[in-house]
Recover the amino acids of this structure.
């Protein structure tokens, strides 16, 4: 048995980019920031705050929900799986990206959160 499960709680880094593919299947892409707060160890060493950025991919009806309700700054919880994608650009340079494909998404916080 194997398990590929990721749970993230963080803030949307940019408004989702939503595209519609064949047969009107929606796909949304956005970044999500998760932050570990700064702390001081027992020995007095100060560890600074650290933010990690995650590339989120959402498909189908959940993507249309993202399009409708997610905005930069909105706090969300993501349940999904980690994937790796390889591609070659027009110059022949090979690239690899790590993405989280969301299976579930939970909007957190007030309705006003995420508005600028």
């Amino acid at each position: 048995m194997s398990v590929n499960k990721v749970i993230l709680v963080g803030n949307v880094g940019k408004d989702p980019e939503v595209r519609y593919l064949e047969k009107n299947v929606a796909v949304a892409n956005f970044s999500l920031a998760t932050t570990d707060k700064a702390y001081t160890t027992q020995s007095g060493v100060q560890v600074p705050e650290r933010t990690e950025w995650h590339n989120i991919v959402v498909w189908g009806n959940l993507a249309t929900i993202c399009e409708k309700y997610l905005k930069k700054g909105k706090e969300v919880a993501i349940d999904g799986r980690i994937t790796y994608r390889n591609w070659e650009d027009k110059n022949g340079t090979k690239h690899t990206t790590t993405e989280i494909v969301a299976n579930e998404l939970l909007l957190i916080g007030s309705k006003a959160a995420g508005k600028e």
